[in-house]
Amino acid sequence: MSTRTSTSALTRSIERNLIVGVLSLFVFCCTLPGLSFVWDEAGASWGVQGPLGFVTDYDGVIKIVAPNSVAATAGLQRGDRIDLPQTSFESRSFILPGGARMAAGQRVDLWLVHDNAERRVTLVAPSVPYSILARVSFVVRSLGTLVFVVVGGSLVILRP
Questions:
Q1: Residue 49: its pLDDT value, please?
Q2: Residue 102 or residue 21, greater confidence
């Protein structure tokens, strides 16, 4: 009986260690690539009014245009309206509120109505470097995740 009990306990211990190891490896593989933004920010595009520098409502009316932004340079003004039926679905996903994230250099084509005149506008998301605070935040969040996994995994493996 004692051999059977010790073999069963050993098997459970191996299974537990294997599961903790696989889950830890998964979390590390999902977390660590985010640290690449600390030194490689070439694909970053963000801003207070979004990467293109403007905010619309769900009807496509422009509410805010940031000064010195891509949108301001292209001539977009507060009150202009984006003709949503003529603007491609892919572009709409970037210009409406809560839009998708954009990579630097990504192009967005839209049809703009200004004073009853319609024109096609192409905007390109700029490459904007992350601030020091954002970089520190990436590192701290990643370290927090790693500490959580190490402590949690240790508690599971070393439990009495």
A1: 47
A2: 21
Q: Angle of helix 2-31 relative to helix 132-157, nearest 10 degrees?
A: 170
- SS3 for 68? coil
pLDDT averaged over every residue in the chain: 83
CA distance 145 to 139: 10
pLDDT for 45 equals 58
SS3 assignment, position 122: strand
d(CA 59, CA 118): 16
Nearest to 113, CA basis, from 84, 144, 82: 82
Distance CA 71, CA 86 (A): 19
User: Residue 10 corresponds to which tokens in the numbers above?
Assistant: 């050993």
Asked whether 70 and 124 are in contact (CB, 8 A), the reply is yes
Q: Model's pTM, two decimal places?
A: 0.58
Who's near 126: CB < 8 A, 6+ residues apart? 45, 51, 70, 104
In angstroms, the CA 122 to CA 91 distance is 10
